[in-house]
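The passage that follows is intended for readers who have already worked through the single-chain material. We present the inputs for a multi-component assembly, then the predicted structure in tokenized form, and finally a short commentary. You are encouraged to pause after the input and sketch how you expect the pieces to fit together before reading on.
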Amino acid sequence: MTVQELARPTPTPTEPPAPVRKPRRPRTLGAAAVVAIIGVFAFGPVYWVLVTALTPTHDVFRFPPHFIPDRITFEHFGSIFESPRLLKYLLNSMIVSLITAVLTVIVSAYTGYSFAKFRYRGRRSLMYLVLASQMFPQALLLITLYLVFSQVGLLNSYLALILSFTTFTLPLCVWMLKGFFDTIPDELIEAAKVDGAGQGAIIHRILLPVSLPGLVATGLFAFIRGWNDFIFALTLAGPDKQTLPPGLVNTYLGEFETAWPELMAASLVVSLPVVIGFTVLQRYLVAGLTSGAVKG
Amino acid sequence: MNVRLTRRSALGLFGLSTLAACAPSTSAPTPAGTEGLKDDGVKEFPLTSWSYNEAVTKQPMTDAIAKYTAANAGVKITTPSYPYNDYLNQLLLQVQGGQLAGAVQLDVAWLATLAATGKLVDLKSVATGLDYAPAALALGQSGGAQYGLPWTFAGIGLISNQELLTKAGVTSTPKTVAEFEAALTAVKGLGGGIVPWAGMTKVDQLKDIIPWMWEFGSPIVQDGKIVIGDDGSVEALTWYKKLYDQKLIAPDVNRVDARALMSQGKTAFYEDAIGGKATVTKSSPDKDLGTKMVPVARPVKNAGDKPRHLAWGQVIAVMNGSGAAAAANFAKTVTTEQGYTIDWFTKTGLPPTTNAGLADSAVKNDKFATDFTAQIGANSSASPFWIYPQFSQMEKVLAEEVQSILIGKKSPKDALSSARDRMNALIK
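Having made your guess, compare it with the prediction:
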């Protein structure tokens, strides 16, 4: 026993033990610093988008840049609604992304179920083939798709975008849902069979309802893929069916000029529906993405 | 013969067939001709452009189309448009898919690439006898054919901020490289974060080094071979690197950055096409900046040398096929008739390409346009790479090697020799 330990007053049995002070401050500070750094990376660009959207055009390129604008203006937001084309792009994005999401969920649910719960010849090869299709450079496939769609008269249509987005989204979504279905115990299916349920009833009345978080996560993933795509939408959709990413570039990025404040304002406004949708569905997204991660 | 198809071989077969599907067609392009100009009676055609999207040019283009359709009964023009930066790729894809028809707005740099597809109409019969300035008309030619009717023509050249130069004590326009260097040093002395020359140092715009190589005596391309790495080009890059090291030009600057610097009064010189002025003045807090911006001829190596500039311009080309004759008539009208060309100039600031247009009072009274045309446009030449369909890859190679010089990774001689070899391999 050290001298210091001997010198420390021994608590009497009747006294409650003195609380042991932990050196919490450094850990709290460290954690706060890490959170702050992550916060800067996560929200810094969004903040800069907001600042640029609110800054008068003449001040946008001021040197040195001002992180808090001296003057703010809402004129750039006003200019969005003067352009009916942007609302059209927004509508196109909604149509294409929603149908892509629904189609992807339907196809990948059945495919994922098949991979997860059935054992048949060629199953493993098929699974890897599906995954391998994700490895092709998309720009290469764009050329092929353009020529094929041109031959069959699908260019400049929603269908061209929906088919191409679904094609690229499916491999990952199939694997996501396979992982999700793997976590559902086979006993559940066996019990349903014992109760006389057929395959249709098993998947539609038992498996899909309990897989809702996985289906929502998959749908959101497919939706984002459709919502964010630029090059396929620019190439395959034509002027009337263009979605937001090429639409915004078309509207605000020119040979000589990029209308940054208007572009930022438009980006903020058109991202609102997606932000709201994600906020509403985020608990499903988190549950869906994590539940397939650990098999059990 | 029995063939056992295993899973592995089936997968391999699938991979091979996919790659085969992606391979380009080996059929030779159809030769260009004027047969597409026979009037097929079709009055409806698309005008594919990037200008129809842009704030400055959308309304003038709409006006021109409305005026033309009002004057030509039965004509209907649709207006597909793509962003400038993706434009060429989109056109090439559409040509491959047989989707591109009618009139097509083109940057002069892209003409040879599109002509190589064999789908453009030779407009020589249309252009003959019209009032185009010879230099402008030449920019619409490729391989001896007239594939484009020139719509606007100038060059890319130096634009100065006279107020800054006066503040720095530079009272006369630098005419030689030595005078230019002295002017930059004087501007640097002003301090305050001013970049004396917003020369291009970012990889996407390093092709701007081409006219400097000309000034230092390099032909760049000679007898169909790239000769970069010769004494002239090495001397040009050695000089450019010296300015970079002396902080007379700044790192990481492209055209957008240079315009921003000029708009904020933070640079004395930058290089741009004539249309860039509107962007700079629009985003500037200085309402009088436009009057302070003065185009200057590129300083030459030795007094008396001819200043050289890279040409810049736009043409209207016509695709072989349905409606080609109607599209060619539209192209001829908007590029030559005074009512269209002067209206286009007054609304966009882009100069016409006809002698009559250039002599019009609207152009003559615009001092910036007149100076730009006299100082820069008059001495512009096409990039020696534009005749090659691979020009984009060649410019990329050059830019990469120039960047390696600026960051000190390679000597000018080594980098430019490497650029020469890589570019020659591309056109072999």
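Commentary: DSSP finds 14 helices and no strands in chain A. The two ends of chain A are 49 Å apart (CA to CA). How closely did your sketch match?
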